[in-house]
Amino acid sequence: MLAMLAMLALLADHRRIKFDRDRSNRAVTDASDIQSFASDYYHILLQLSSCWLCSSFVRPQLNSSGNTFSFTLCSDYSKMAPPPFTLTSLFPCNPNTTRGVSTKLHISKDNKLIYANGRTVINPSTSKAYTGHSRTVTVARFSPTGFYCASADTAGTVRVWDTIGEENILKGEYRAISGQVNDLAWDGESKRIIAVGNGRETYYNSMSIQIGNHQFAQMAATASDDSTIVFYTGVPFKYEKTIKTHTRFVQDVKFSSSGDHFVSVGSDSKIFLYDGKTGETIGEFTGDVHKGSVMAADWDPTDSKRLATSSMDGTVKLWDVERKQTIQTWAVGTGVPNQQVGNAWGIDGDIVSLSLKGVINVFDKRKGDGPARVLVGSQKSITATTLTPSGTFLTGAADGRIIAYDTTDGTADIVTGAGHNTIVTAMVSVGATTLSVGFDDTLREVGADAKSMTEAATKLQSQPKVLASSSEGTAFISEINAIEAFRSNQRVAQLSVGYQPNGIATTGKVVAVGGDDNKIHLHSWNGTELKETSTLDTPRGTVTALAFSFDGKLLVAGDATGKIILFSVDEKKAIESRWTHHASRINALAWAPTGTHIASGSLDGHVFVWSVASPLTTMPIRHAGPGGVNGVAWLDAEKDRGRLATAGADGCVRVWELKLQTA
Fold first, then answer.
1. Pfam family example for this protein (predicted)?
2. How confident is the model at residue 365 (pLDDT cuts 50, 70, 90)?
3. Position 586 pLDDT exceeds 80
4. Which of 164 and 212 is assigned the larger pLDDT?
5. Environment class of 29 (CB within 10 Å of its CB; exposed 0-12, middle 13-18, buried 19+)
């Protein structure tokens, strides 16, 4: 049997449900209720009680009777005080997309959008990211109450978690099917979930969520890549009939909020309407139809009289359900990047449609000239970052896209023009010039306004790794067995070396290069020639990140093992080598504008802030970037406070407010 695709809808018909008091309204003194109550609080305590400083856990011990707890406290209870950092804003990544596959978006009853990217579930309305999954998340949907969210992944796991609190407490975890879950839906009472996907033993499953009194859903519809729709009734969703209206893949199926109808859309460009109680076909939508595969549909949540559809022909259409005719058409654009692959309709009337290139288009049904606004974010891992003198935070991603983030007003825009076509490995800003290099072996330039790329592009001798630039505009690039220097898009020097260069930094007169020989190679630069003058030893591993202090007197180095060493450049020796808190490769280092603190980002997903004057005083921001932190930048800093931007593998940009500790 063909695997079910990511399409289903679920409905609770309250008029036809019999209320089972014995089953649904047990006394609170029931032993099983006490156990459930205790287990809920156990999970809450377990997730809330981690020490921000030492990362140890306060373990609540649940006894065998399930009604009492004992605790093991952190050795220093004062460490449980609030941490000296606050996440003030999150620029979310946008949904990941695949050509020809419907991407699932959902909007809650209080108008919050939710979607998945990688192992993260994003709620851009509240600037929150849920990172509880260990596999790639395929779908996330709010419960009808809005208090919970269910998300599912490629391993067949469904997690139900709280959306109200800051901690997103896990309510339950369920193994739905043995393969990837493609879609899921709640019943009308937020008590039961049905999931479908690519299971080996079964292609769908339903789960009862113990949140309150049970009132079960009565109808369900699933759609498949074999061009059929299966209609189910009752619990546990007995097979009722197979519907064969489409001639190609069925991409989406949705019940109206009233439950009177459901609709299906498919790769045959057709839209069909069905009776929600019997599954009988009512008719096909006609008129100004789509010219390409229809990938998603959603109902007007206020009255179920209108329908919005998104298509690979680059258009979004609004339909009158009773007449089955087009009311309005929005053209997003032409070409593959503007194919529309997902949508959702909010309670405030906004219609959200997703482009294949990852842009979220928001339409106002009162306007017919295109999107009222667009939401931009990275679709892939952020691999490089830099801060321009004007305060714009620029990121480069694994797909070659460069995005400009305004950390003051919270907006983001794609940097237009001819950019990289693959991974951006490094970026640097000096004065009005911002340079970037990528695995396309090209050095490119971002315009002074940070909105578009210039026409300047220079081919490199080999694959670049890291980029640094001096104040007069010379760019130094570490490549495979070589270091190149460029000025005004012209190669001015090249040095072949007998090691693999990695991290690189410059003061303008001194160029430091970290190698796989566990050394930092210091070079003099006279404007036309690089000449190695001395080396610094880093005994633990390959030097992966380097940064000079603003006066050039200090050099901080991070290696592949997670160790950070602070050197005196004049004395050519280490003055601090005890910074060993990271557990994996150091990807980024940045000095605070005050010169008193250093921020580091690592593959371990943590960020640390180190004090130069008081080396043993550290500020750990643990789990700052799930999957790894690839960039850190100080937005501003004063004596006792600062703002730090971080970005990495999950495609999100986070801004932290720090209380800096002084000596």
1. WD40
2. confident
3. yes
4. 164
5. exposed
Angle at 50 between CA 44 and CA 54, to 5 degrees: 175
Rounded distance, CA 447 to CA 435, Å?
9
Residues 179, 236 share a domain: yes
Domains identified in the chain, total number:
4
Q: Which residues pair with 555 in a beta bridge?
A: 548, 567
Quick check: is 286 in a domain?
A: yes
Say what the pTM is: 0.85
With 0-12 / 13-18 / 19 or more C-beta atoms within 10 angstroms meaning exposed / middle / buried, residue 75 is: exposed
Could you tell me which of 293, 294, 316, 297 has the C-alpha nearest to residue 307? Answer: 297
Give me the chain's average pLDDT, please: 86
Residue 503, CA atoms < 13 Å, CB-side half-sphere: 32
CA distance 647 to 129: 13
560: tokens are 């592949």
Do residues 426 and 369 share a domain? Answer: no
pLDDT tens, residue by residue, 473-501:
899 999 999 999 999 889 999 999 999 99
Among the listed residues 555, 588, 589, the one whose alpha carbon sits nearest the alpha carbon of residue 573: 555
Dist CA 395 CA 405 (whole Å): 8
Q: Nearest to residue 8, comparing CAs of 146, 183, 226, 148?
A: 183
Of 85, 90, 83, 87, nearest to 50 by C-alpha is 83
Structure tokens at 141: 């949907």
Cα-based distances in Å from 598 to 40, 571, 617, 649: 40, 20, 12, 21
- CA-based nearest residue to 150, from 110, 117, 191, 94: 191
pLDDT given at position 29: 32
Residue 144 lies in a domain: yes
Q: How are beta strands 294-299 and 306-311 bridged, if at all? A: antiparallel
Task: Specify the DSSP class assigned to residue 22.
Answer: H
Contacts of 370 (CB under 8 A, 6+ apart): 330, 331, 332
Q: Phi, psi (5° rounding) for residue 658?
A: -115, 140
In whole angstroms, what is the distance from residue 442 CA to residue 439 CA? 7
pLDDT computed for residue 167 by the predictor: 83
Residues 167 and 201 in one domain: yes
Strands 204-208 and 192-197: antiparallel
Q: Report the run of H or E that residue 48 belongs to, with start and end.
A: helix 31-48
Q: Which two tokens stand for residue 486?
A: 């460029």
Task: Report if residue 508 sits inside a domain.
Answer: no
Is residue 542 in some structural domain?
Answer: no
Reply yes or no on whether the pLDDT at 251 is more than 50. yes
Q: Is the pLDDT of residue 17 over 50?
A: no
Which amino acid, one-letter code, is at 69?
F
